[in-house]
Design a protein that fits this description.
Strand order of the largest sheet: 2-4-5-7-6
Low-confidence stretches: 271-275
CATH superfamily of one domain: Histidine kinase-like ATPase, C-terminal domain
Oligomer: single chain
Strand content: 5-15%
Distance between the termini: 63 Å
Shape: elongated
Number of helices: 9
CATH architecture of one domain: 2-Layer Sandwich
Radius of gyration: 36 Å
Order of helices and strands: HHHHEHHEEHEEHHEE
Structural class: alpha+beta
Mean pLDDT: 83
Helix content: 55-70%
Length: about 325
């Protein structure tokens, strides 16, 4: 404890020592009576020693308070300007830490709710396959359709977790969006066939982007187009040098739902009515496209269809 005190305040005792030596030299050079110097030094020591003892005890008490405190109110009695500054800094740090804890708890709660939701969703295709097996009606196309749904739900879940934990990197390269969208269509061909949907792809878009994450975003958009298209309809995909437009002839989206499409967990009327939406597909799509510096815009009319446009941001130049 004494060494800490000397380390903290020893400089002032060193200054006092130098001043005393300076006075001694002055007295000697001017041949002043040394008795006056001795009396002055003795008086200073009489004042300095009790003050030093009190100051050391106060310093020791402060260290013990700081070593054992758990809440800021326990060190409120430390009222020097420096102590108050430290307390303000600690209070700000404590508030920030509490906010971080609250955000982490909220994130954990959202993830738990999300996982519960996805478990419930994945029970639907699993139950369908189980029923097919029990009734000896296992058709390869029907089974493949349910497997694709399961893969889609799992992909959404894993992507959400990666984004929420920020554990994935983007790798940009020059790609053909035409080739990419055709791979996405091929991956979902069973779903097209099941609803007897036709698809038309025209044009191309040479874009520097992350192929994996753009594929995920386009898969979400196309999955919604398939999900809410009427049987026998058509999905049109048009590419230009700056955008991709995916248009369906489905049931459409209510005007009041359009502004909230990209909110986390929002399903809207169609999602509730058809019990197919998790509320995270378009949310994740928006998050991914933001990271890719791309914009997304949705327009829709009830019973006519929905059009989704993904394009370069106007203030960006790729």
């Amino acid at each position: 404890m004494m060494m800490k005190y000397i380390k903290q305040h020893g400089i002032w005792y060193l200054v006092i020592s130098f001043l005393s030596v300076g006075f001694l030299v002055s007295f000697a050079l001017y041949h002043l009576p040394m008795i006056y110097f001795g009396m002055t030094l003795l008086f200073n020591l009489i004042v300095l020693i009790p003050f030093s003892i009190w100051h050391f005890l106060s310093f020791r008490r402060q260290l013990r308070l700081l070593a054992n405190f758990r809440d800021l109110w326990e060190i409120a009695e430390l009222s020097s300007p420096l102590d108050e500054s430290y307390q303000k800094a600690l209070s700000a740090h404590n508030d920030k830490a509490q906010q971080e804890v609250f955000r982490a708890q909220s994130q954990a709660s959202r993830q738990q709710d999300l996982i519960k939701m996805w478990v419930h969703q994945m029970k639907v295709p699993l139950s369908a396959v189980s029923l097919m097996a029990q009734t000896n009606q296992l058709q390869s196309d029907d089974v493949n359709q349910q497997v694709i749904r399961l893969e889609h739900y799992l992909e959404n879940l894993l992507t959400y977790l990666k984004f929420s934990e920020r554990q994935d990197d983007f790798r940009f390269e020059q790609i053909s969006v035409n080739e990419l969208i055709k791979k996405v269509i091929k991956k979902n061909r069973i779903l097209f066939f099941h609803k007897q949907l036709s698809v038309e792809v025209t044009g191309d878009w040479q874009l520097k982007t992350d192929k994996k994450w753009l594929s995920f975003a386009l898969s979400q958009i196309l999955d919604n187009a398939i999900k809410y298209s009427t049987a026998g309809g058509k999905i049109t995909i048009t590419l230009t040098k700056n955008s991709i437009t995916i248009a369906d002839q489905g049931i459409g989206i209510l005007p009041e739902d359009l502004p909230r499409l990209f909110e986390e967990g929002f399903t809207g009327y169609n999602g509730h009515e058809h019990q197919k939406a998790s509320g995270f597909g378009l949310y994740m799509t928006k998050q991914v496209l933001n990271q890719l510096d791309l914009a997304i815009e949705v327009t829709s009319q009830i019973d006519i269809g929905t059009e989704v446009v993904v394009s370069k941001r106007k203030n960006e130049a790729f």
